[in-house]
Each structure stands twice: as structure tokens, then as C-alpha cells.
Amino acid sequence: TRRSSDLQFWNRLHSVAMAIAIALSLFAMGITCAQSQAPAPSRRSDLLRASALPLTKFYDTPDPLPAGKPGELIRSQPFDEYELPLSVSAVRILYHSRSASAEDLAVSGVVLYPYGKRPPAGGWPVIAWAHAATGIARQCAPSLMRNVGHGPFLSMYVNLGYAVVATDYAGLGTKFRNAFLDGPSNASDLINSVLAARAAVPQLGARWIVMGEAEGALAATGVAEKENEVRDPNYLGGIAISVLASARESYEHSVNGSSSAMLPSLAYGVKTVYPQFQVTDILTEKALPLYNQLEQTCSQERTTPELSLAEIVKPGWETNPFVRKYFDRNEIGQTRAYSPIFVITGDADPAIPPTTRAQAFARMCKQGDRVQWERYPGLDSGRVIGESVRDQIGWIEARFAGRASPTNCP
Predict the structure, then answer these.
(1) I need a surface site. Which of 6, 16, 166, 167 has the fewest CB within 10 A?
(2) Residue 310: is its pLDDT beyond 70?
(3) Residue 341: its H or E element
């Protein structure tokens, strides 16, 4: 049985629940409008502040890790301590994936699916969820958050008849290093999570899509491009919400906007992808405590005052060969996507300039991607995920129904 904390959860996030309920009601009744009138979800930082769950032995693996194929399930565990609706069942998973250097590693995650209902013929259709940046420490894993990071939003899709497979990404939950913001690494974890989820929950179907928000949008587009090699006929496409920019463009804009907080995390990600990289080649001595703190606390818990750009990185940091290689591998539109992509952004998003998003869209179109880009006037990244629910649902339903996907490429 679910704990009584369900009621506390819904009271605490009442505005989010009401937003989703309104959006679903509009959709169910067939009311047409320019866009969903639902208010936005709470800020991501607010959602992340939900009380954390303990890091248990479930997340531990032997060192060295016994060999396993990518996507092979290590263990699974039904879990009823999340603050989710009674209509949602949750199973934690631990599975094999691969690092950027093809190292075998263990990744954790959670599978959410309808409780007490018979799956449709072929099993529950699957949405692989790519979460936004939460930090680098083990305890920053969404599966260790009582609301799984975006509980009301993900539960909405479960109640619509989908299973949601939410990977933590390697190093969040498990003892391995996290490849912070590295699209190809996170894409591998997403693809392999779907394989492991089917082994843990046999009611899941073969067909699936991927959906990512904020930094997770880079991982979602990474899945679309990686599937051009995998060519899984059951992969039907992906949705990228809030962000349409490469890692290079995201960092350049944050630095130009006098925000250098992510640069130690960048050094951490580069070090994960390229172990021979030396963080002291780009970080100053004053920034090293920030770097060392990354594995101890989650991003929303940090209270260290923000340093200036000059206090964090050395001159010419962006020309470091490993940083450049890291940026190159995270360039959107390098490889043709295997299936359609639906991009959702808010025109009032201060994080990424409109010209940057337009350039990324142009690269994808030039590459030959079948991409649809919908822009929402007056919305920032925090609101667009909730306001676009109606369009998300319509696009996902069309993919599983086998209908042709629209595109607004020139």
C-alpha cells in the first residue's frame, strides 16, 4: 500500500497537479485552442528540493563489475515509497550500459507503469525520460527523489496508458563517474534503460519514444542520432523540450552572460569522457574546491558564492584540445536522426538566444532530419513543458498510431 505521504505530496505540488489536470481535461474534451492554457510546473530547482530517499545497497555493485551486455538487467526492485499517485506502480532497475570509452558500467533508474490495469495488446507503449541536470553526486539521482524529479508530469503519462522508463544516467545513484551533459553517454544510458526495463517489467511493449527536458533534450537528440547506427525499428522518435542547442552553445552563452557556475561541472564531464584530461589545465586553484565539492552535494544544495569567470577558469580554457573534442561530440546535427524529432521551446527563454536555437534547427534540417520545431511566445524554459502538454500528447499518440510526422524544415 502507498504511504499517507501521497496526500502531503499533492498538497505541496497542488498547482502542478491542477495544471496537468486542466491540460488533460482540455485534450479529452476536444477543446481546440492555440496552446494549452495550463499554468507552468514549478521550477526545476523547486522540484529537486523534494525530500531525498536514502542511498541503499540496491545501487551498489561489485568492483570490478561482472561483465554484462548493454541493457542487461542486473537487478530490479518494486518500490512503493515514491510520492506518486496510487495509479502508478514503480520498479527500480539496475542495468549494464557503456561509457564513452566503451567501459562496462552500472546505471540505475526507475520504471513507472499503470497499477492494476491490463496492458494493451503488445504491452504498454514506452516513453524513455531524459531528465535535466540535477548534479553529479550519487545522491542526485532522480530515482532517489521522492517525486522522481518530475512526479506529476511523468504520472500524467502513466495515467494516459504509457510506461515511463526514467534512467538516472551513469554515476547518479551508482558508483561510476557521471558524464555531465555528454549527450552520447546519456543517450547510451537511455537506450539501454529501455532494454533493461522490459526485462524487469514484462508488461512493457517493444515500441518506444524518448523525451527530454532542458539538459535532457541534448540526450534525447543524442538518442535520435545514435539510433541511426542502432536502427531499432521499434524506436519511433523523440521530443526535445526547452533546449535546442549544443553543449558548446550552452556554455558559451552562460559564460557570456556572466554565469560561470557550470564550468567546474564541465571540467568534470570532460574528465569522465577523456580520463587523460587534467582539470588544472583549465580550472584555477580557487575553483578546485568547487570541483571537489561536486561529488559530495547536489547542485541545488550548494551554498558557495559564485565566483567570477576569471576566478574559475584560466585564459584560453575553451581552446583546450579535450574541451574542444568534448564540444565537438556534443554538436547537434552532426549525424542524421533515425526517426522524427519534435522540438519545443519558449521564445522568452533567457538561457539560449533565439538565433542559437535557429542555427541548431537549421543544422538538423540540413542534415536531413524530419524535425518539427514549435515555439511558444512569452514562455521560458520553466513554463513551456507544462504549457505544451497538449501538443506533446498529440505528437506521441501520432507516433504510436503510425501516422506520418509533420516537419517545418524549409
Answers:
(1) 6
(2) yes
(3) strand 341-346
The SS3 of residue 52 is: strand
Helices (H), 259-367: 263-273, 288-293, 309-312, 321-329, 354-367
What is the crossing angle of helices 14-29 and 5-12, to 10°? Answer: 80
**Bridge partner list, 313:** 283
CA distance linking residue 202 with residue 185, whole number of Å: 26
What's the whole-model pTM score? 0.87
Q: How far is CA 287 from CA 181, 275, 293, 362, in A?
A: 19, 19, 10, 36
Q: pLDDT tens digit string along 286-306?
A: 999 999 999 988 854 445 566
Cell numbers found for residue 387 = 504549457
Q: What percent of the chain has pLDDT over 70?
A: 83
The pLDDT value recorded for residue 148 is 96
Cell digits for 393? 500528447
Does residue 24 sit in helix, strand or coil?
helix
Burial 381-408 (b: 16+ CB within 10 A, else e): bbbbbbbbbbbbbebbebbbeeeebeee
Segments of 99-200 assigned E as strands: 104-114, 124-130, 163-167
Contacts of 183 (CB under 8 A, 6+ apart): 218, 219, 221, 222, 247, 329, 330
Give the other-Cβ count within 10 Å of 217's Cβ.
Answer: 28
**All 3 cell numbers of residue 366?**
540540413
Q: Which amino acid is at 182?
A: D
Which residue in the block uniquely carries the three cell numbers 526535445? 240
Taking alpha carbons only, the member of 385, 348, 345 closest to residue 39 is: 385
Respond yes or no on whether the N-terminal peptide bond of residue 184 is cis (omega within 30° of 0). Answer: no
Cα–Cα distance for residue pair 52/152, rounded to 1 Å: 17
Phi/psi at 240 (nearest 5 deg)? Answer: -115, 115
How many Å apart are CA 138 and CA 329, to the nearest integer?
25
Q: 354-367 and 247-256 are packed helices; what angle lies between their axes, rounded to 10 degrees?
A: 170
Instruction: Work out the burial of residue 32: count CB atoms within 10 Å of its CB; fewer than 13 is exposed, 13-18 middle, 19 or more buried.
Output: exposed
